[in-house]
Amino acid sequence: MLYRLLYPLAHRFEVFNLFRYITFRCGGAVVTALLISFLVGPRLIALLKAKQREGQPIRENGPEGHLLRKRGTPTMGGVLILLALASSTLLWADLADPYVWIALIVTVGFGLIGFFDDYKKLTKRSHNGVAGRLKLLFEIAISAVAVVWLAFLMPAPLANALAVPFFKHVLFDLGWFFIPFGSLVIVGAANAVNLTDGLDGLAIGPAMIAAGCFALIAYLVGNAIFANYLELHHVPGAGELAVFSSAMVGASLGFLWFNAPPAMVFMGDTGSLAIGGALGVVSVITKHELVLAIVGGLFVLEVISVIVQVASFKLTGRRVFRMAPLHHHFEEKGWAEATIVIRFWIIASILAIAGLATLKLR
Q1: Is residue 151 a contact partner of residue 178, using CB atoms and an 8 Å limit?
Q2: What pTM did the predictor assign?
Q3: What values do phi and psi take at 161, rounded to 5?
């Protein structure tokens, strides 16, 4: 909004020329999202506590310590993330860019799915919310619409194509299979973040790191000069997603202020599905879907731990981990919650560096 309002005045007031630069607007998006979080957070948490007197329902088959430490903590804190992210993006991004709207629609859409899931859990006083199949159906529908929209927007040969890290100018034309593939990336990312959200600060830290990486990737991919130098696939208009991703960094940082151990509020499915969906759709637009699996490798590990656990128990009757997802395994081994969170953040940082390395190693 500010870009369209103030940049045209640059010929009269030179200071407004700053709004031409995506980097300046990225900085503005981070600060704005952070300030919104700090201003709205305490009031929102107080409201959630008043409405949710017993807090988020805690799984009885989860770690025993959670029944004591986390009882009474309100959920749906993802509303704060969505508010800060959407408001900051609308303020600082170029709203004439369709990629910004696709990213916002997917993020808010997944957030609404999570919101209804959280609401049902609270009203039923159970950790089971909306039926899994129904929730998955809505996620696929939103993702499919977004991917079809992207396929018509993107220029050839990028439309319906998959880029491969480490290889110069390699594109695999997936044809119509790009729609289920892109949908799988978005839905998979959303549910991977959702599975990781089990400890105070555990999911939001790696999500913030991944958002920062994709802010850089979007900026480079959207800039013809940098894309040519690094031999990336240039996606005209994708640079504005750097502003969106930066707003997500600010919103995540602001939420972490309240979610740091011991958490004052949980993000719930409202936040985890929204953040994961946002990362997924940005990776699809920037043609870095496979890099997301590296940058967000921690989320992938959490999903794999669940798959391995379920498969092993069904096939052999034995469990590989003491409890799945992976972070609960280390809880059962006696690791302190803060230790698990910080070590997982370290792993996420290492994987993010590895993912960014693919930009140059070609």
Answers
A1: yes
A2: 0.94
A3: -115, 155
